[in-house]
Structure formats: structure tokens, C-alpha cells
From TrEMBL:
Name the record gives this protein: N-acetyltransferase
Every N-acetyltransferase domain range: 22-179
The organism's place on the tree of life at top rank: Bacteria
Lineage of the organism: Bacteria, Pseudomonadati, Pseudomonadota, Gammaproteobacteria, Lysobacterales
């Protein structure tokens, strides 16, 4: 009997409760086209929750920047169909970036409404926290619109604390202390 083929680091299969199987893996330059194409499938609220403002399209420059993270300071994962990069439909993107001259990283996450509510966002947030801990950081934080109740509830359930809200911006900063437990 042969041993199962091991996946490269940060790669894993994830089965949604619906039965659909996704591959979670680091983002690749080849993902730019599919991400740009899938942008049109996002609803206005999804776009506003992620980008904090209305956006009609994801420009080629934005897609290029998103799919070329700096390996020294950024980490980005996608949850995509188990097809080669460039062919796979991307259903979620999660990223974290080191904040210059701090021991903090800022996160951003977008899960398409087609697969939201099935545990993928929770799983991706745990992956971002694992990466941040591997970098010996103290905090992982994100700014969330106060109307994005699912994201605020998810962050709270994972141990994030609200540290700034009601300042008139409509944003809530959620912070995970990486020196506290899992």
C-alpha cells in the first residue's frame, strides 16, 4: 500500500457541509484572471464589506497586487476548486500583512456568498492566526464595517476583542492577542 501523497505546506483539502470540496492553498499569480472574473459575481454588500467602499471592478493592477504578495511581509490564501491555478474558480481570499515597525499583522478576508456560512471563513481566520504566530507576532487585527455582523460575530467567537468602535467611521477594529492560548 502506498502512502497518501502529501500536500505542500499551507495546502489542504476542505470539504464544505454541502459536500463541495475546495483546495486551500497559497495564492498564485495565475489566480489573477479567475479572481478578476469572479469579482462580477460578488454582491454590492460583499464588496463594501471587504473593500469598505463601492467598487465596480477589480482592475488588472489590483488583481496583480493581490496575487503577488511579498513573501517577507504578506501571506495570502485562496479557497478554490481543486483545479490548476488559473483554471480554478476562487471562492475565498484571506490575507495578512505585517504592519511596518510593529509586531502586528492586519487581516482581510472575503468569502463569496455562494459558500459563506459553511465554516470556511472560520477555518481561513485560524490559518491567518497560525501564520501570524509562526512569525512571532503579538497581534492580528482587522477593521470591519459595523454593519458586517457575520464577520464581527466570527471574530468574537475566535477570541478577537473589539478595541475601537463608535468613532464615527463606521468601522470596528477587532484584535486577536496572539500570546493568548490557541
Amino acid at each position: 500500500m502506498t502512502a497518501p501523497k502529501r500536500l505542500p505546506p499551507w495546502h489542504e483539502h476542505f470539504r464544505l457541509p454541502s459536500g463541495r470540496e475546495l483546495l486551500i492553498r497559497p495564492i498564485r499569480p495565475e489566480d489573477a484572471g479567475p479572481i478578476q472574473g469572479a469579482f462580477g459575481l460578488l454582491g454590492p454588500e460583499e464588496i463594501r464589506h471587504r473593500f469598505m467602499y463601492a467598487l465596480k471592478e477589480l482592475t488588472p493592477e489590483m488583481a496583480q497586487r493581490l496575487t503577488h504578495p511579498d513573501p517577507n511581509t504578506e501571506f495570502a490564501l485562496v479557497a478554490a476548486e481543486a483545479l490548476p491555478p488559473g483554471e480554478a474558480l476562487v471562492g475565498a481570499v484571506a490575507r495578512a500583512a505585517l504592519v511596518s515597525r510593529t509586531r502586528d499583522a492586519e487581516f482581510a478576508i472575503l468569502v463569496s456568498h455562494f459558500i459563506a456560512g459553511q465554516g470556511l471563513g472560520r477555518h481561513l481566520m485560524r490559518k491567518l492566526a497560525k501564520w501570524a504566530r509562526s512569525k512571532k507576532l503579538d497581534r492580528l487585527y482587522g477593521d470591519v464595517l459595523d454593519t458586517n455582523l457575520p464577520m464581527l460575530a466570527l471574530a468574537e467567537s475566535l477570541g478577537f476583542k473589539r478595541v475601537r468602535e463608535n468613532d464615527g467611521s463606521g468601522l470596528v477594529r477587532v484584535v486577536l492577542d496572539l500570546n493568548d492560548g490557541p
